[in-house]
Amino acid sequence: MAKERIGILGGAFDPVHVGHIQMALSTLDAVSLDQILIMPTGNPAYKNCTACAEDRWKMTVTACSQDPRLVPSRLELDRQGAIYTVDTLLALRRSHPKAELFYIIGADVLMKLEDWHRAEEVFPLCTFLVLSRPGLTDSEDMKAEKKRLKALGAQIRTLKITPPVSISSTELRVSLREGLPTPELHVAVREFCECKGLYGAQKRVENASAWVDQLFDALDAHRFAHSLSVAVTARNLARIHGLDQKKAEEAGLLHDCAKCIPLKEMRKLAADNGLTEDETILESGALLHSLAGAWVAEHRYQMQDPEVLEAIRYHNTGHAGMSPLAMCVCLADSIEPLREDYPYLTEVRRLAGVSLERALLLSLERTAEYVEARGKYLHPRTRETIAWLKTLPACASGDSLSR
Asked: Is 37:71 a contact under the CB 8 Å cutoff?
């Protein structure tokens, strides 16, 4: 049986950005690794981090949530005292005794490798994957250093990652503080920073900092990132269509707050609080989590706004007569940037910038077709919502929206 091949990418991740993720994914493919441990440092000796360790951990988990081969690791965060590479590698050797370990570093780090703590013990424990850097990787100084380190026992392999990663975390922190675009940040990581007010980013929702910490504990990584992305999308739709952006963001953040509650517990919550007697809803977490979510948002997140609670309550099925804000959140749930592609997604996103009603109608119609074509149960409320939307002036032409 082939040995497991594990990469290690450490760093402050203050904040984690798409360059880190690109670096990891490119290395995975280039060296055929099984996984890469993305490892935030807890107490870096070479710099003072702006964000605390737990916030950097949550951002890292969020950024890795779209690919199971990227595995966030708390190994350095949870160890007391200074962090040394040799300790990390020895711990991994104990937990993965048969694995091959590959430590991912930049070309500039290679030039300082012998200064690492107990470097002579580090060299036999892993192979160093050195990512190229223009003007440095092919320099005579680096060639000489590689030769010298190999003579000391270091195992070194140089990788040319295209395009080369060149993103400044310092510049990203400035952009967040000044409210400038940050295409180098994962959409959910940016929303996390703004919810927490990290790096001087403007906080728009008063309770968002506490909410995201609570949501992080309540949801799995994929659902947490999805919730942050829905919040961004709902806020943008609200801005386009002249709705309350703060309410849209609040509803987006909280819409799935009950999603990861076990069905048995959700059913008890529904029974104890009279949420529904509909057996088809009570038998399905996919249906029940929205009703349970409205209750949880009200009682555990102290959300009192009835319009926000309505948007949470019906975000998965819609309902006849739903408010524009509820349409906004229902639609954001289906078109947020992290959604996997599905037929008509591009068209639904296009329509969302023109008409909430038409975009939501197309989205619900295609959802109904998908569910029924697979012999699954479609709740009548979705059909009622489709019929109601067709009576609205924006959708009243009767023409197929997909044509």
From this structure: yes
In a domain, 316, yes or no: yes
- Cβ(392)–Cβ(323) under 8 Å? no
Q: List the CATH number of the domain containing 385.
A: 1.10.3210.10
In a domain? residue 176:
no
Query: What pLDDT score does 330 carry?
Result: 97
Tally of structural domains, the chain: 2
270 and 386, same structural domain?
yes
pTM of the model: 0.93
194 domain residue, yes or no: no
- Mean per-residue pLDDT of the chain: 91
Residue-number span of the structural domain to which 115 is assigned: 5-159
**Claim to verify: residue 212 and residue 154 sit in the same structural domain:** no
* 152-166, 221-235, 292-306, range with the lowest pLDDT: 152-166
263 and 367 inside one domain: yes
Contact at 8 Å (CB) between 237 and 248? yes
> Is residue 182 in some structural domain?
no
Say yes or no: 68 and 143 in one domain: yes
